[in-house]
Amino acid sequence: MGWFGASIKRKEDPAFLTGRGRYVDDIALPGMLHAVVLRSPHGHAAIRGIDKRAALSLPGVHAVFIHTDLPESMQRQTVPLLVPSPTIKQALMPYCLAKDEVCFVGEPVAIVVADSRYLAEDAAALVDIDFEPLPAVSDCAQGLKPGAPLAHRGSPNNLGAFIRINVGNADAAFAQAAHVFRERIFQHRGGPFFMECRGMIAVPDVVSDTLTIYVSSQGPHRHKRVLLDLMEWADHQLRIVTPDVGGGFGPKGSFYAEYGALAAAALAMRHPIKWIEDRHENFLSTQQERDQYWDVEIAVDAEARILGVRGTLTHDAGAYMPWGVVLPWIAATSVPGPYVIRNFHLDVSVAFTNKVPTSPVRGAGRPEAAVVMERLMDRVARELQLDRAEVRRRNFITPEQMPYKVGIIFRDGRPVTYDSGDYPVCQRDALAAVDYEGFRARQAKAREQGRYIGLGIGNAVEATGLGPYESATVRVSTSGKLTVYTGATPQGQSHKTTLAQIAADHFGCTPDDITIVTADTAATGLGIGSFAARTAVNAGSSVHLASAQVAQKIKQFAAQMMEAAEHDIVLENGFAKVTGSDMKRSFREVAAVAVGMPGFSMAGGPDPGLGCLPRRAGSHFSSGHQVRLMLSSTGGASSSSRAVAAVFTRISICLLIRRR
Question: H or E stretch including 630?
Fold first, then answer.
């Protein structure tokens, strides 16, 4: 058996279990100063002036940065929107520090830099900001009504985006329905309360005019892209590293406005600056999820089979749109789930409010869609006095219908197609596992004991392996050490173990023989990050391709060194061996030959070095669950192969227990 898929001890655990994990706040550097972000106490207000003299008079306080202290490039532009969409009416994004208006409680207004966090906190309390409170809007549905307060005083209205999802002819389906039922559902906000709050250290190098940033994130390459735009720098001037991460959940994938201001402060001070978000800030300013109003109807025939679903969704973007319309679009297009719905219409309005901006959190709209669809299914069962599981069974997409074209266009502009799945069997097995048929008897017995128990059924289909790609580079150094570099950014998902297992099978070694370097823009120039259950498909495929290429190069060089046929070379325990003989060369010896010697020609042999150009295997959503691996090199040649992404069909049977 190979290593891939085997159950082994995690490579990550020894460091964590012995207290050697390294998070952003564990990093201490000589001459490091500490920053506090001064945030707005108002939901909506104009900034008429800022007096920082009292704060600057405190001993140990080095600087107070406001909008006008930032570099010119940051003063004239807002944080760029990385996920534009033609459905967006107003692409409102924040400045790195508020310019003349704050639009939510917690928006960054100033950065205070001092010898310690304690001094910075004291100084922040002395910064005098002259705010003029403005009318604010806190409810997305109310914010879209005529005459509602404006979330941004220069906006014509609070409509940020409008999306129309349409499949078939919902109105015609409803006209011929035997039964129509309506549900109004409000899904409130939630927050990403990770154990490790956000944090960042900016380290300038005045000799090379470069900046290194350590940040708790889910993808440093995206952060680098934003900062390069904000600072108008060249690629070599900025390095971003994500060390160990204590929980991401989605919002750590976003670039926050204060990150730009902290980088600018470090460059101006010519000192490392550390900022660590406290729990109060986490509640106030880290992006949250949703606030959604759903008003939906379901049409069914006399046998409870779905004829159509239609309705509206009003989604709260908060004060800005950091992830564009990703969250509401995924929610809207995930409603059909595992059911046959030939006619579907949903109008989605995305509204600005004076609240914390929203972004994908733990499911990115899919749980909200499942709640809506399952509530409709329960309503049908209740109104028609049918078993809830039976109503679902009658409406499942069957294996014979696969691949199934849902008819919906996903947020990347491609049609959604389910490639496989047996939803009826999935539900059948789940029901059997909880003894669904015997539940009523258990419920009656529990009530005799004063206990109230319930059982809910929920079905959902989730597409994983989201694109566009993830990078991987494999190198064998002249010391013989094997290293894999990838843009994947782990937050506890065993990336290093999994990727090492994939590589180990190619090199005939163990996962412990391979070092995995993640989330460092200096180690690999391309990367997307870890979110949406994508790393095994994207990064795993890239590591597979890169390892195969480097293993082949080892065989090519070793064959030349031992004057053997390339197909006779096998890799085993750090050596390239000739099958059927005692001849072998260590990876170290092969790597030394592969880099060449000064003044000696390598013409006619393999390319120098035991490494590869970054491999970029990625998923292109030509269908909801079909993945195409796009393999390309710097030279422009490309090839492709087919693969199928993992698809999670989550059939959850929830047992709810409440004690009287």
Answer: strand 626-632
User: Residue 317 is which amino acid?
Assistant: A
Q: Which residue(s) pair with 584 in the sheet?
A: 577
- The amino acid sitting at 263 is A
Contact yes or no for 656/451 (Cβ under 8 A):
no
Distance, CA of 389 to CA of 394 (rounded, Å): 9
Q: What pLDDT does 654 receive?
A: 31
- The angle at the Cα of 28, spanning 23 to 29, to the nearest 5 degrees, equals 135
Q: What was the pLDDT predicted at 413?
A: 78
Q: Mapping DSSP to helix (H, G, I), strand (E, B) and coil, where does residue 583 land?
A: coil
Closest CA relative to residue 230, chosen from 378, 349, 96 = 96
Residues lower than pLDDT 50 in the chain: 620-660
- Angle formed at CA 359 by CA 249 and CA 187, multiple of 5 degrees: 95
* Distance separating alpha carbons of residues 191 and 288, to the nearest angstrom: 5
Q: Could you tell me the two tokens for 449?
A: 């004991």
How far is the C-alpha of 557 from the C-alpha of 110, rounded, in Å? 58
Query: By the 8 A CB rule, do 395 and 336 touch?
Result: no
Q: Taking the CB of residue 169, how many other CB atoms lie within 10 A of it?
A: 13
pLDDT at residue 604 in the model:
77
- Amino acid (one-letter) located at 144: L
Q: What is the pLDDT of residue 250?
A: 85
ω before 243 within 30° of 0 (cis)? no
- The answer to whether the beta carbons of residues 657 and 456 sit under 8 Å apart is no
CA-wise closest residue to 477 among 589, 554, 591: 591
Could you read off the pLDDT of 204-263 as tens digits, one per residue? 999 999 999 999 999 999 999 999 999 999 999 999 999 999 989 889 999 999 999 999
Cα–Cα distance, 602 to 604 (Å, whole number): 6
Q: Tokens representing 498?
A: 């999994």
CA distance 124 to 112: 6
| Cis peptide bond N-terminal to 30, omega within 30 | no
Query: What DSSP character marks residue 598?
Result: T
> What percentage of the chain's residues is helix, strand, coil (to nearest 5)?
30, 30, 40
d(CA 536, CA 457): 29
pLDDT of residue 621: 35
Q: Kindly state the tokens that stand for 256.
A: 């926050």
Number of C-beta neighbours around residue 208 at 10 A: 9
CB 318 within 8 A of CB 356: yes
Count how many residues are written for the chain. 660
* Contact of 525 with 556, CB cutoff 8 Å: no
Strands 575-578 and 610-611, bridge-based pairing: unpaired
Give burial (CB, 10 Å; 0-12/13-18/19+) of 157.
middle
The secondary structure element, H or E, covering residue 64 is strand 61-65
How is residue 225 written in tokens? 């892209």
**C-alpha span between 132 and 104 (Å, rounded):** 14
At residue 201, the 3 state secondary structure works out as strand
What is the C-alpha to C-alpha distance for residues 461 and 463, in angstroms, rounded to an integer?
7
Report the distance separating Cα 129 and Cα 657, nearest Å: 51
pLDDT at 633: 25
